Amino acid sequence: MDRVNLLEPEARDHLNKEEDSRMEQVIHENLNFTEEILSAASYSRQLVEQMTLAKAYVIIAKEHNNLHLAWELSSKIQSCQLLLSKAAMRGQPIIREEAEPIISSLSSLIYKAQDAHYDIAATIVTMKSHIQALEERANAETVQGTVFGQLGAETIPKNLHCLILKLSVLNLSVVIWNKL
C-alpha cells in the first residue's frame, strides 16, 4: 500500500499541500520573465515594446488634442498590461493566441498615429524648447524677486529699521527678565 494512504486524513492533507506548493515553486522557477522578455521570439517582449511605443503616442495624441486616438491607445495598453500580469501570475509564457489580437490592434493604432504625422523626435524637440522657455522664465522671476527684495530693504528708512531692532531687543530682555 501507498505510504500516504496509511496516514490520517489531516496528515495526508498536509503532505498534499506541501507537495502542491513544491510544484508551484518548480513551475515559477521554470519561467524567468526577464529571459522571456529578452528572447527574440517572445510575445511578452513584443507586447512590452509595443506598449512602450503606444505610451509615447498617447502623450503626443493628447498634445495634438486627438483624444479618441489617445483613448484607444490607452485601452489597448491596459489590455496588454492585464495579459502580461495574468501570464506572470500563472507562471507561463504568453501564447500566440493570447498575444496576436492585442499585437495586431496595437500595431494598427501605432500605424494610425504615425500616419497622423506624430513624430516622436519632433515632439521631443518641441518639449525641449518649452522646457528651456520655462527655465528662462523661472530665472527671470528669481532675478526679479531679488531686485524687489533689495528695493524693499532700501526703501525702509534707517531710523525705522533701528526702531524695529530696538523693539526686538527690548522684547527679548523683557522675556528673559520675566523668566528670572
Describe what this molecule looks like in 3D.
There is one protein chain. The chain is built from 7 helices and no strands. Helix content is 84%, strand content 0%. The chain has helices at residues 9-30, 33-38, 43-63, 67-90, 96-115, 120-155, 158-179. The protein has 180 residues and is mainly alpha-helical. Residues 22-29 have low confidence and may be disordered. The termini are far apart. Helix 3 (43-63) runs antiparallel to helix 4.
Shape: elongated
Main pleated sheet: none
Q: How many DSSP helices?
A: 7
Helical coverage, percent range: over 70%
Ends distance: 94 Å
Assembly context of the chains: single chain
The sequence of SSEs as H and E is HHHHHHH
Structural class: mainly alpha
Characteristics:
0% strand; mainly alpha; 84% helix; single chain; 180 residues
What's a quick, concise take on this entry?
The chain has 180 residues and is an all-alpha fold.
Topology:
Layout: H1 9-30, H2 33-38, H3 43-63, H4 67-90, H5 96-115, H6 120-155, H7 158-179
